[in-house]
Amino acid sequence: MVQSVNEIPQEDDESMGQIRAVHICLHLALPSAVKALIELGVPDALTEAGLHVELTAAEIASRCTERAADPESFDRLLRLLASHNFLRVSVNSENPDQRKYALTTAGGLQYLVKNNKKSELDARVYVAFRSNGWTLLEKYKGLEGLGSLIDVGGGTGETLALILSKYPQLRGINFDQPHVVAKGVQVPGEYPGLSTSIKM
Asked: Where's the O-methyltransferase C-terminal domain (predicted)?
């Protein structure tokens, strides 16, 4: 008899399905949580405080934009990210509700700090993506017949430039933070919006 390697015992089927559904939902929330963390300026605020300095959610919120004004909701966001090792969290044994957060080197958020000292990593990351991108682009046919393409979080536009080299009929728009797009590639031809930021 052949047994599936991922077969779930019958009695655990329903509970495991529920656990799996919650697990998937949490993984869907993680990219949004990281995006919110960056937009609120948490990596910058924690870096300015010092790499090993621990701050409460309220202290971090006071150093960030006004959108982080609700410390309780903000603390939930920070706890989620700490559970995935983006941040370090410590709890006061006398007051368990008093959590303090700090950056971790393992979390990779130092890379997201403006004017960080590891900017040379940018070039290596983009070279790695670019070298594999062409192979993928040769096989993927989903862009044929499109008139425009918006690359959300497109960085400096390397991927979009690669796509436009294969599909020159496309109008390409690179959407990213202004300081990232300012370093963007310039592509010859008429590509309105490439290497410019879109304001929402």
From this structure: 134-186
- pLDDT of 129 > 70? The answer is no
Q: How many C-beta atoms lie closer than 10 Å to residue 164's C-beta?
A: 20
Pairing of strands 171-175, 148-152: parallel
List the CATH number of the domain containing 87.
1.10.10.10
* Burial status of residue 101 (CB atoms within 10 A of its CB: 0-12, 13-18, 19 or more): buried
Q: How far is Cα 44 from Cα 52, in angstroms, rounded to an integer?
A: 14
The predicted-structure confidence for 35-63, as pLDDT tens digits, reads as follows 888 888 888 888 888 877 899 988 888 88
β-pair type (55-56, 87-92): unpaired
Work out how many domains the chain is built from and give that number.
2
Output the six-digit token pair for 38: 């960056």
Tell which wins on pLDDT, 167 or 105. 167
Give the global pTM. 0.48
Above 50 in pLDDT, residue 18?
A: yes
Do 20 and 97 share a domain, yes or no? yes
CA distance 45 to 37: 11
